[in-house]
């Protein structure tokens, strides 16, 4: 036995790659177990049609779309990778550091997907790359598997330069603005607001496959609300047992979303009592108060990456207080007024103005407006927005706030048409330290949010399985509380 020790025994630095015995031994003796690529059923066909639609809008332009890379969380840890939404819409592929190139030809575009080949036995990266080596992260599909699954021409990523990305032939090709500056500069690409705009406009109207994905996301979200409501007693606690608080409910939904989809579409909001009026209360580090209103803003992202976005405000005890119910009733009235404006041929913003009229009138009736309703609703007024500072709806799809790169006229000023999926989400937010409202209203926050599909003759509320009237919300909540193990 020798006293000699290897010069390095850890994993942080790749010096182990220089040890001959180790590298020779780890390079051989592995069986093969091919992993098929499994995009969501129908995704490849839908993506092919999406590329065709983009091709029609940009004849003669070369388009390059990068899937992105996992951002660093801290030190050498990265966040779980989630591909760029435009890339997913055009490919159906969820691979990291992948590149789609659409090259113009007479009558359309040719598409090629460039993917980094897996680091398999025999590759230094197999054991030397902790983020991508198969020894570390498991087996993954190869290029032939992706080509078969996506019905696309697929080539290794290092061949992308052969396509001309560093040469004059593709210099100035359009790329999405989320492409990293380094990648764009290295390949002579031109981040294009025009390309982002076209993609946003195209994504506004969902096709049949996309609508089905939205239904899956919403249905999983509805069952997630039930899972959370059942856990309210554990979040509150009882007697000598300390409650697990908002974090427990946030974690309950996040686990549900990961089990029944890809995960959450955005950071789950759970706000009890004085935290409910905080619009983006994602810290979720407060207690769940037994007599307070509990605001839940939650959405499951399906395996296809289409997301739901639903909000309900529940009475933690099963019954609203008179003040909570009064606020909920006004928000419900505004919600119904807004949803009534969602139908074909109606301008997008009409739902917003309809809901705001109800809110302004209600606040005036309560004596909370320092001006008349007409003055508050005027462009120079907007005093009612103190208690509703955010917008009350948005397009929904692969992104929670979908299609955000469209021009104002194409988004806010457009008429609704069948296939649009959007949210309606009015609320009232009376902060605990807001001295303009009476003490009994302080610390109450209520929001109602539903996901709506514009149909040929109206709208379908995809999230209608969850009640919106106060009595219905109370009954639904009490039923879930009784189901608590």
Label the overall shape.
Answer: globular
Count helical runs. Answer: 16
Strand content: 15-25%
Parts with pLDDT < 50 across at least 5 consecutive residues: none
Query: Kindly state the mean pLDDT as a whole number?
Result: 93
In the sheet with the most strands, the strands line up as 6-5-4-1-7-8
Class from secondary-structure proportions: alpha+beta
Overall helicity: 25-40%
Give the termini distance in whole angstroms. Answer: 60 Å
Task: Give the total of beta strands.
Answer: 21
Radius of gyration: 26 Å
| Main beta sheet strand tally, sense and closure | 6 strands, mixed
Give the key terms.
485 residues, alpha+beta, six-stranded mixed sheet, four-stranded antiparallel sheet, 34% helix, 16% strand, EC 3.4.11.9, protease, hydrolase, aminopeptidase
Briefly say what this structure is.
The protein is 34% helix and 16% strand. It has helices at residues 20-26, 43-57, 85-91, 124-128, 134-137, 143-150, 181-186, 193-204, 208-230, 232-236, 245-260, 322-339, 350-365, 373-377, 408-411, 470-482; strands spanning 63-66, 72-74, 77-78, 99-105, 108-115, 153-156, 174-175, 190-191, 237-238, 241-242, 263-264, 269-272, 293-298, 300-301, 310-315, 393-395, 421-424, 427-430, 444-447, 450-454, 459-461. Strands 6-5-4-1-7-8 form a 6-stranded mixed sheet. A 4-stranded antiparallel sheet has the order 16-17-20-21.
């Amino acid at each position: 036995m020798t006293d000699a020790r290897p010069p390095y025994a850890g994993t942080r630095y790749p010096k182990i790659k220089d040890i001959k015995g180790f590298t020779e031994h780890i390079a051989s003796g592995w069986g093969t177990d091919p992993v098929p690529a499994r995009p969501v059923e129908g995704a490849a066909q839908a993506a092919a049609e999406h590329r065709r639609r983009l091709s029609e809008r940009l004849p003669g332009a070369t388009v390059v779309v990068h899937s992105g890379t996992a951002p660093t969380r801290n030190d050498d840890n990265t966040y779980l990778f989630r591909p760029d939404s435009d890339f997913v819409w055009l490919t159906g592929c969820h691979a990291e550091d992948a590149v789609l190139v659409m090259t113009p030809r007479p009558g359309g575009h040719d598409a090629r997907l460039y993917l980094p080949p897996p680091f398999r036995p025999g590759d230094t990266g197999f054991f030397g790359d902790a983020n991508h080596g198969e020894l570390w992260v498991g087996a993954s599909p190869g290029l032939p598997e992706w080509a078969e699954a996506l019905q696309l021409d697929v080539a290794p990523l290092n061949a992308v330069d052969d396509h001309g990305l560093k040469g004059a032939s593709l210099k100035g090709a359009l790329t999405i603005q989320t492409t990293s500056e380094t990648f764009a500069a290295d390949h002579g690409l031109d981040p294009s607001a025009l390309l982002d705009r076209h993609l946003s406009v195209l994504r506004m109207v969902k096709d049949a496959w996309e609508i089905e994905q939205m239904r899956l996301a919403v249905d999983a979200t509805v069952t997630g609300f039930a899972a959370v409501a059942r856990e309210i007693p554990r979040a509150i606690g009882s007697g000598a047992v300390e409650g697990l608080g908002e974090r427990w409910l946030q974690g309950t939904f996040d686990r549900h979303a990961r089990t029944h989809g890809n995960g959450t579409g955005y950071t789950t909001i759970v706000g009890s009592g004085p935290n409910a009026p905080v619009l983006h209360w994602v810290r979720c580090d407060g207690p769940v108060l037994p007599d307070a209103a509990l605001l839940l803003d939650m959405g499951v992202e399906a395996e296809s990456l289409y997301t739901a976005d639903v909000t309900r405000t529940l009475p933690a005890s099963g019954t609203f207080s008179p003040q909570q119910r009064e606020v909920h009733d006004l928000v419900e009235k505004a919600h119904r007024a807004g949803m009534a404006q969602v139908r074909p041929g109606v301008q997008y913003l009409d739902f917003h103005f309809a809901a705001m009229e109800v809110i302004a009138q209600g606040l005036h009736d309560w004596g909370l407006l320092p001006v008349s309703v007409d003055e508050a609703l005027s462009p120079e007024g907007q005093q009612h927005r103190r208690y509703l500072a955010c917008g009350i709806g948005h397009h929904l799809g692969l992104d929670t706030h979908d299609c955000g790169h469209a021009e104002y006229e194409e988004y806010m000023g457009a008429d609704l048409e069948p296939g649009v999926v959007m949210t309606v989400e009015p609320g009232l937010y009376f902060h605990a330290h807001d001295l303009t409202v009476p003490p009994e209203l302080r610390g109450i926050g209520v929001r109602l949010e539903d996901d709506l599909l514009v149909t040929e003759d109206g709208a379908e509320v995809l999230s209608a399985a969850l009640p919106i009237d106060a009595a219905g919300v109370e009954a639904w909540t009490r039923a879930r509380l009784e189901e608590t193990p």
